[in-house]
Write a structure and sequence with these properties.
alpha/beta; Alkaline Phosphatase, subunit A; Alpha-Beta Plaits; 2 domains; 13 helices; 14 strands; 32% helix; globular
């Protein structure tokens, strides 16, 4: 019987456009195909598990008998961002898109934020984060005004130099923004973006912090915790779910650190779920159209994934998946509406089972609840019955 379930989310690792991708401006997007063309792409472990056997994947030839059960997951939620992707994995479908601000935030929002913080704002439009530091960082340091910007996603981002606004004070400003951004302006995330350095060589620091919208319904984490099972979060999972339903959380400084800490948790005694997000694929490479960097990060992850699998216990189960796409080979630097992979591995899982194309990331939450013998009050259908050894 499965006692511990690990879900590792390779943030933005899409595997090809969904049928409605054109409605999101993402026709032709295929994150996996783009990165597979790099000389730095080497993923023998995910290949063995069945990554290239998944429906619709043409980046490389599959293996005769994959070591995992595998599927292609389509998204039901009206979105293509981190928040709605993870919420759907946890059984919460977002029927209405979260608000976005292609022309910047309205005056009433900016006025309320400036009044709450006592500081003026700069930028207030969709912007690349690194470009925002280059173009507004000097004025920010000189005046103390906060750099406020957004993207194609439902985010309100605040950048500040750590010598001007210490991180803890910046977090307070984010909390103020979170109180303001509710109702029709309830963005998915308020994001603190601290940076250091001297103009023009500013650098973001690892002190980023996300303040998410509280999930508007019950999630897998709520159900598990209410039944007395352990819920462990690694990386920004705690932020994505606003801490709800999470028993313990481990912060990380990047993918490699996230995997090291996840591997360390294999030696811990718990019964329940360990939910992991690896954000570098998205933040460091997808949004910066860095194909080689993305490919190298996947290769590094694949190596650590092999170590993780070698240390799994007989009662462990693992899912490797993603929350959306972010094709670094496209002209866009934004997220993309793509299918995501699902690789299901463990002693209790039958290898080589093609679970097809599934309707909804929420089949993951249904399968986790099934693994623990719990009734599923959430959307989604378990694939565990087909894959159980």
């Amino acid at each position: 019987m499965i006692q511990r379930f690990f879900i590792i989310v390779a943030d933005s690792f899409g595997i090809g456009e969904m049928p409605d991708a054109a409605l999101f401006g993402d026709a032709g997007s295929n994150t996996l195909l783009s990165v597979s063309k790099s000389a730095r792409f080497h993923v023998p472990v995910m290949r063995r598990l069945g990554l290239f056997n998944i429906d619709g994947v043409t980046a490389a030839r599959g293996v005769p008998v994959p070591e995992s059960a595998f599927a292609r997951l389509s998204e039901l939620s009206k979105g293509k961002d981190t928040t709605v992707g993870h919420w759907e994995m946890a059984g919460l479908i977002s029927e209405k898109p979260l608000p976005v601000y292609p022309h910047g935030f309205p005056p009433e929002i900016i006025s309320a934020f400036e009044e709450a913080t006592g500081r003026k704002t700069l930028c207030n439009r969709p912007y690349s984060g690194t470009d925002a530091l280059r173009d507004f960082g000097l004025e920010h340091v000189r005046t103390g005004a906060l750099i406020v910007y957004t993207s194609a996603d439902s985010v309100f981002q605040i950048a500040a130099h750590e010598s001007v606004v210490p991180p803890e004070l910046l977090y307070d400003y984010c909390r103020a923004a979170r109180r303001i951004m509710t109702g029709e302006h309830g963005v998915g995330r308020i994001i603190a973006r601290p940076f250091t350095g001297e103009y023009p060589n500013y650098q973001r620091t690892p002190n980023r912090h996300d303040f998410s919208l509280d999930p508007p319904g019950t999630t897998l984490l709520d159900v598990l915790s209410s039944k007395g099972l352990d819920t462990l979060a690694v990386g920004k999972i705690f932020d994505i779910f606003a801490g709800r339903g999470i028993g313990s959380s481990v912060r990380t400084t990047g993918n490699n650190d996230g995997m090291r800490k996840t591997i360390a948790l294999l030696s811990e005694s718990f019964r329940g779920l360990c939910f992991v997000n690896l954000v570098d694929f998205d933040m460091m490479y997808g949004h910066r159209n860095d194909v080689d960097g993305y490919a190298a990060a996947l290769s590094d992850f694949d190596l650590q994934l092999g170590e993780f699998i070698s240390l799994m216990q007989p009662e462990d189960a693992l899912i490797v998946t993603a929350d959306h796409g972010c094709d670094p080979g496209s002209e866009s630097t934004d997220h993309s509406r793509e299918y995501v992979p699902m690789l299901l591995y463990g002693r209790h899982i039958k290898p080589g089972v093609n679970l097809g194309t599934r309707s909804g990331f929420c089949d993951i939450s249904a399968s986790v609840l099934d693994a623990f013998g719990l009734e599923n009050p959430l959307p989604g259908a378990s694939f565990l019955g087909e894959a159980r050894a």
